């Protein structure tokens, strides 16, 4: 039986016969799919929003056809935006259970990625990223002090969910660099 889904590609791993894709889907949450062909372009790259047809055989779900809805090109062309999006993808991959419907978190994530793709105001992006992190943590069912820094909130999320967010230190360095650049620009 074929199923039609929409989702954000969170992670892609080469396997013996094709690729294993973790896709955060609108109606089925974080789900694992096999794309049984070699990926030769950026159409099935992480961060892309795709619409796809899937078929389940035994215990595996295979992607049969797909269409890219959004490449988020402006995110890909900005180191700063790319770091923020990678942290979001890593947090989703590590904190959400597989095959568990998370429509609110999907809408929140897609809304923020669309915003991030269009915005160029780094100060506003940082504030909205912090709002995203706050909302994400609350949607997971946790409460944390809103006066913490973004990095401290991510550290708290690591403790609450018992995961390690590897890109956390890169976020810290990137935010520091963006702030320093803004200070130098205002002189």
What do these coordinates show?
This protein has 187 residues and is of the alpha+beta class. It folds into two domains: 69 residues, Nucleic acid-binding proteins (OB fold (Dihydrolipoamide Acetyltransferase, E2P), Beta Barrel); 113 residues, no CATH class. 45% of the residues lie in helices and 26% in strands. It has six helices and five strands. Strands 3-2-1-4-5 form a five-stranded antiparallel β-sheet. α2 runs antiparallel to α6, α3 packs antiparallel against α4 and α4 runs parallel beside α5. The longest helix has 18 residues. The radius of gyration is 17 Å and the shape is globular.
Shape: globular
When the domains are counted, the total is 2
Instruction: Report mean pLDDT, rounded to a whole number.
Output: 92
Strand percent estimate: 25-35%
So how many helices? Answer: 6
Structural class given helices, strands, pairing? alpha+beta
How would you write the strand order of the largest sheet?
3-2-1-4-5
Number of strands: 5
**What is the radius of gyration?**
17 Å
Q: Give the SSE order as H and E letters.
A: EEEEEHHHHHH
N/C terminus separation: 62 Å
Question: Level of helix content?
Answer: 40-55%
User: Quick one: biggest sheet?
Assistant: 5 strands, antiparallel
Query: Which ranges are low-confidence, i.e. pLDDT below 50, for 5 or more consecutive residues?
Result: none
